[in-house]
Structures are given as structure tokens and as C-alpha cells.
Amino acid sequence: MTAAPVVEPARAEDVDAILALRAALEEWMEGAGVVQWPRGSLPRARVEAQLAAGEWHVVRGGPGEVVGTLRLLWSDPDFWGDDPTPAVYVHGLMTARSRVGTGLGGALLAWAAARGRTAGVGLLRLDCRTTNPALRALYERHGFTAVGRRDFPTFSATLLQKPLGTA
Asked: Which of 9, 16, 117, 129 could form a disulfide linkage to 167, CB 3.0–4.6 angstroms apart?
């Protein structure tokens, strides 16, 4: 990307666009044999509740078009347990297939890191399914290190983190 994308808090009217982006990526993953997000695994009610909590952030490609998203959290007990380490957590990082190769995903990670540094936390954390080595490798190229694993009834996740340094 030549210029940093404008990342803004998602609005209630963005729910459909977020879900459409997710569905498109789920379909692409299924066709490509990538195991990360099964089709239909993100219910609308969950997105609405997360959006109402101020977690979703978007990059717009035009009116009504969302080309990138992420959820920004300040704790993540579901994946990281009761870890008191000050950190910022990223979930729901998505970029439209039309933006592959533009650096949008890396720019979203940089934006999240900047938010973490501004808040005074020392780590940026995220996860990916253990069945998705390509995504893990992408995160490692962005400076993340695998530091653990969390097993759930239907999948396992690799936990990754990156030190943020100072602002």
C-alpha cells in the first residue's frame, strides 16, 4: 500500500458488509483447502454484540464497501486464559481478496500495534488455527512468535505474539 489505510470504528450499518466479507473469505478458504474459518461460523448476533462493544474496526473501499476489518481487544480470556500481561489482541483480521498483495493486512496489524503502544501495552497478540500453517508463516514474517497452543473441542489454535517496543 502506498498510503496507510484509514481504519475507523465500525458502525451498525457495517454488519452486513463485515458478514459478506467473512462469507466471501470462508468460501475462498473452502475452495483453496485452507482450514481456518468454517462456513457460517460467525453468527450475525455475535458480530452485532462485538460491534456494539466497540471491538470492530474497518477499512472502506467505497460507500458501503468494507475491504478490511479487525477486532481489537484488551483481554482475550477465551484464547489466552486469565493472563494479566498487558497486551492488545487482534481477532477477525480480514482483507478482501481484491486487496491481496497491497499490504492491507500488514497495515492493519501495524495500526493495531500503534494502538497498543499508545495504550502502553508491550505485546500484540493473535492466533490462528493449527491447521493453517500459511497464516502462521505470514504472522511470523510480520514479527510474531508462536508462544503456545489452545485446544478447543473442535479445533486447536496457535497463540502468537509480538513485542511492541516503545512508541
From this structure: 117
70 touches 94 (CB < 8 A): yes
DSSP class of residue 46 equals H
pLDDT one-digit tens code per residue, 6-27: 999 999 999 999 999 999 988 8
The vertex-132 CA angle with 3 and 20, nearest 5°, equals 55
- 3-class SS of residue 127: strand
Nearest CA to 161 among 62, 52, 83?
83
Domain 8-163 bears CATH identifier 3.40.630.30: yes
3-state secondary structure of 98: helix
DSSP strand pairing (145-151 vs 87-95): unpaired
Q: Where are the domains of the chain?
A: 8-163
Amino acid at 63: P
C-alpha cell at 51: 460491534
